[in-house]
Design brief:
Blueprint (H helix, E strand, L loop, with lengths): L3 E6 L17 H13 L4 E4 L8 H11 L4 E6 L6 H14 L5 E6 L4 H6 L6 H20 L4 E4 L4 E5 L13 E4 L5 H8 L2 E5 L3 H16 L6 E6 L2 E2 L3 H20 L20 H12 L2 E2 L3 E2 L1 H6 L7 E4 L1 H12 L5 E4 L4 H10 L1 H20 L1
Parallel strand pairs: 1-2, 1-14, 2-3, 3-4, 4-7, 7-8, 8-9, 9-14, 10-13
Antiparallel strand pairs: 5-6, 11-12, 12-13
Length: about 375
């Protein structure tokens, strides 16, 4: 099973433990951050999305032109740009940057407040149905050799056609995330890759089984990605000391009412329930700060429902082995980003990334021998 290692880039430095400084869009940082991922052996980088953050397509173009092989995953929220337009944007960017380097990640939207920043007042259940239709039209635009019609609940096009198609036979991979009611149906029916947060092993295993079964019932197969925040040290003690420092730095920023969130440049006017995926992480955090020996949820509990925040802690060998246990469950893509965003990428390239690839290779060889 091919393993793919993803990172995440932003337009300015910042994290839960590092306050935002400097310009919102720093071209030099985008260039250096992108190149660091390529030099560290990453396959692809995610460009996140929020209603207050810089445009992901523009950031992706900058990252692609700053590198030679690195691929991008552009997060996108259906409902604001027509799927036919997005298809042409993706295919055009694919051609202009060497071909086969562009993918799209569909975020249906777990925050009502953030949806409304861009004028979307739809209900979440409606948004999932809209996402399904969006992907239908997007995929048809990217693949249809002749004009096509589509009439759905949310999209109605007549004679739609894109002269520009993806630059390679691999097309534009379609990623998807979410565990709300309706999410599994949409993802199983439409996605190539289903993105999961770094929950404990048992929970991730259950998600994989449920989603895989739903896809199989539709005659489809699907891949899985897992997002975590590794914390490594030369020794296990050093790694846990580093985790405690990150916790203290994050708590200090909270007390000073500062933020390092590179996807939120304006505080919400009111608190709200967030996505089911993020809330599940909180449930795990309330049960224990540490799961499966080294999956640390200290930052998860401290910051509240905010997405990818769980951290495998240990030496590079220990963290690689902890992540590869998810590989055994069927996860083939690992999105890792750091609390020291650029510095961690450089460090991971020295040991963690090679260990992940080697560990996956050995597991594949062992599986092949068992079959033979």
């Amino acid at each position: 099973m091919p393993i793919e290692i993803l990172g995440m880039i932003a337009t300015t430095p910042g994290s839960e433990s590092q306050a935002l400084t400097g310009p919102i869009v720093d071209p030099g940082f985008v260039r250096d951050f992108s190149r660091a991922h390529e030099e560290a052996g990453f396959d692809r980088v995610l460009i996140g999305y929020s209603a207050s953050s810089p445009d992901g397509f523009a950031v992706a173009a900058a990252a692609l032109h700053a590198t030679e092989r690195l691929k991008v995953l552009i997060a996108h929220r259906p409902g604001f740009v027509a799927p036919t337009v997005v298809a042409r944007k993706l295919a055009t960017l694919d051609h202009l940057t060497g071909g086969g380097r562009v993918a799209i990640h569909h975020i249906t939207g777990g925050s009502e407040a953030d949806q409304r920043r861009d004028g979307d007042w739809s209900e979440k259940a409606d948004r999932y149905r809209r996402t399904g239709e969006f992907i239908d039209v997007l995929r048809s635009s990217l693949t249809s050799e002749s004009p096509f019609d589509y009439e759905g609940e949310f999209y109605h096009v007549e004679g739609a056609y894109s002269a520009v198609k993806p630059a390679t036979d691999a097309g534009i991979p379609i990623f998807f995330g979410g565990l709300s009611d309706g999410a599994v149906d949409v993802g199983a029916a439409h996605a190539d890759v289903y993105m999961l947060f770094g929950e404990p092993l048992a929970a991730v295993g259950e998600h994989v089984r449920t989603i895989r079964a739903a896809a199989a019932a539709r005659g489809r197969s699907i891949e899985f990605s897992l997002s975590t925040r590794p914390i490594i040290g030369a020794t296990e003690e050093e790694a846990w000391a580093k985790a405690r420092r990150i916790y203290d730095e994050t708590k200090t920023l909270q007390e000073r009412k500062l933020t390092g969130n590179t996807l939120a440049f304006a505080a919400p006017r009111r608190q709200e329930r967030t996505s089911v995926s993020a809330n599940l992480l909180q449930e795990h955090a309330q049960l224990s700060d540490v799961h499966d020996e080294r999956l640390w949820l200290g930052i998860t509990k401290l910051t509240g429902p905010s997405g990818n925040s769980t951290a495998p802690v240990g030496t590079p060998e220990q963290v690689a082995e902890a992540l590869l246990k998810y590989y055994d469950l069927g996860v083939s893509k690992f999105l890792i980003r750091g609390f020291d965003p650029l510095g961690d990428v450089v460090d991971w390239g020295q040991e963690l990334v090679p260990l992940l690839r080697e560990g996956a290779r050995r597991r594949d060889e062992e599986a092949a021998r068992r079959v033979a």
